[in-house]
Specification:
Elements (H helix, E strand, L loop, with lengths): L2 H25 L65 H4 L4 H4 L53
C-alpha cells in the first residue's frame, strides 16, 4: 500500500479512538458536558438590548481620535437611516466620495480606496472598498462586554 495512504489511515484510527475515549469519559463519570446557554438548549435566546448610535445627523459631531496607527476612522454620526450598501449604491460616498466631499464639508475617502488590487490608480472607489462598515464602524452607547485595559496611542500635542 502507498505509504501516504497508510499514514492517513493510521491518523484516522488514532483520531477515532480519541473521540471514543472522550465520549465514554463524559458519559461514564468523567467531566460533565454542559451547554453555554443552560440546561435547556431548546429555550429561545433572549434578544439583546437595542442600543442607540452615538451622534445624530452627519456633520454635527467631532471626529473621533484614532487610538492606533493604521486604525480606520470611526464613524462619529448615526447610520441607522442610511440605505443598505448595494453593488450600485453606497450612501456614504454621497458625502465622503471624491466628487462631493468639498461641497458636503465631509472628510474625503483615503487615496488607498482609489487603488485597484493590481496597484492601478482609479478615478473612483475600488470595488474592494465599497462596503464601508467592514472597517469603519459607528459608535454605540453600550457598556464594554469585557474589562479592557487598552490604552491607545496618545495624540500629538
Amino acid at each position: 500500500m502507498n505509504r501516504t495512504l497508510v499514514n492517513a489511515m493510521a491518523a484516522a484510527l488514532v483520531a477515532s479512538m480519541g473521540l471514543a475515549a472522550c465520549v465514554s469519559m463524559t458519559s461514564g463519570g468523567g467531566l460533565p458536558v454542559s451547554s453555554l446557554r443552560g440546561s435547556d438548549a431548546a429555550t429561545a435566546d433572549q434578544a439583546p438590548t437595542v442600543r442607540e448610535q452615538i451622534g445624530k445627523r452627519p456633520g454635527l459631531q467631532q471626529t473621533i481620535t484614532r487610538t492606533f496607527v493604521g486604525q480606520p476612522p470611526l464613524i462619529p454620526h448615526a447610520t441607522e437611516n442610511f440605505d443598505e450598501v448595494t453593488l450600485t449604491d453606497n450612501q456614504c460616498l454621497e458625502c465622503h466620495g471624491v466628487q462631493n466631499h468639498e461641497k458636503k464639508k465631509a472628510p474625503r475617502i483615503s487615496d488607498s480606496h482609489l487603488v485597484s488590487a493590481t496597484g492601478q490608480k482609479l478615478a473612483d472607489t475600488d470595488a474592494r472598498r465599497h462596503a464601508c462598515q467592514l472597517c469603519h464602524v459607528p459608535q454605540f452607547d453600550a457598556p464594554p462586554l469585557v474589562d479592557n485595559a487598552f490604552v491607545g496611542a496618545q495624540p500629538r500635542k
